[in-house]
Amino acid sequence: MINVNSALTRSTAPNLLVWRVAPRASVIIVNYNSGAKLSACLASILETVGPESEVVVVDNASGDGSTDALEREFPQVTLIRSRTNVGFGGGNNIGASWAKGEYLVFLNPDTVVEAGWLEAMLAPFENDPQIGLVTSKIVLTDQPDRINTCGNAIHLTGLTLCRGLGLPRETFDKSGAVNAVSGAAFAIRREMFAALGGFDEDFFLYMEDTDLSWRARLAGWRNWYTPHSVIRHSYALKITPLKVFYQERNRYLMLLKNLRWPTLLALLPALALAEVITWGFVLLADRRNIKNKLLAYQWLISNWRRILRKHQATQKLRKVSDRAILRQVGCAIDFAQAAKGPVALLAKLTFSPLFALLKAATLALVWW
């Protein structure tokens, strides 16, 4: 076991695996009170990977005893205990700093892998040197014949949704480029992860995977989906008390970091329309936490200088134009992922054509 604090102080690790040759892949899992799901995840991984891979678990100060069970049941797994909860991105960055593999593979602790998943996930890297991130076909644990996501779809306004949620498993049966990988299961080249600076730890929770994917695309890499690597995920749409705060703050933080200032100006009409949608969602589905939408604005204003520094750092990665990236994002929103019945249908019929027009107008202006 390895203990780390916020400064990442290192200590000895009696169960740290010592490799004569660096492993091909390092599977990294961030745990926070995952209970028995973590054990099920690790059992499935260890049944399907060989000695050329290592497994690293970073515990974000859990209090449910899940890591005690890990130490008893899986002594071959490297366990890193963080004394504080540093979030999804922070935990994965800690794991990456200790991992030795040529490829870094990130999995959620509530996933279970199917046979052949790792080989299929890594295969695209060997076939195309421009592929930087690879994500799996992720299906629902309780309905494995239905899709959770096949990569994530980014909207013109930065809203990010599961690609194919609820569709039959056989859908999206061909490999291809996607807007973003899913943080629940994806792999990345080790040197690329370092060049991009890893996950942005200010995100803490939600959309870190979208931001990393956007930066990768900006730097000239391709985000790839393979249907041959299958992961089961215990996914359920939950509106937690701070979800709106994190998702809205992080959406705008991502856009402010990654887009040029003139592009953001051209996007203002589309972003204003997205405000109508997000405020509508808050008022209809999350009224008790309405203040979190306001807190997202407050955070952005209070941290403006920090955002400017992030913007400058991200633009140094640029090899691809904003226009090329915006051409690939979507203009339709799958409202069925957040609402049901006639409300979702009405929203789709109302907003999708408007966003299509706004995307065309934006691309007419953005030639850089």
What does this structure look like?
- The protein has 13 helices and 13 strands.
- By secondary structure, it is of the alpha/beta class.
- Strands 1, 2, 3, 4, 5, 6, 7, 8, 11, 12 and 13 form an eleven-stranded mixed sheet that branches. The protein has a two-stranded antiparallel sheet with strand order 9-10.
- Helix 7 packs across helix 11.
- It starts with a strand and ends with a helix.
Describe the structure concisely:
The protein is an alpha/beta fold and 368 residues long. It contains 13 helices and 13 strands. The longest helix is centred in the C-terminal third of the chain and has 25 residues, at 341-365.
Number of helices: 13
> Strand count, sense and closure of the main sheet?
11 strands, mixed
- H/E series: EEHEHEHEEHEEEEEEHHEHHHHHHH
Morphology: globular
From the N-terminal CA to the C-terminal CA, the straight-line distance is 49 Å
Helix/strand class? alpha/beta
Key traits:
alpha/beta, 43% helix, globular, 368 residues, two-stranded antiparallel sheet, eleven-stranded mixed β-sheet, 13 helices
What is the element layout, followed by pairings?
Blueprint: E1 2-4, E2 25-31, H1 36-48, E3 53-60, H2 66-73, E4 78-82, H3 87-98, E5 103-107, E6 111-113, H4 117-127, E7 131-140, E8 147-149, E9 152-154, E10 160-162, E11 176-177, E12 185-189, H5 190-196, H6 208-218, E13 222-233, H7 243-258, H8 261-266, H9 268-285, H10 291-302, H11 304-315, H12 322-328, H13 341-365
Parallel strand pairs: 1-4, 2-3, 2-5, 3-4, 7-13
Antiparallel strand pairs: 5-12, 6-13, 7-8, 7-12, 9-10, 11-13
Helix pairs in contact: 7-10, 7-11
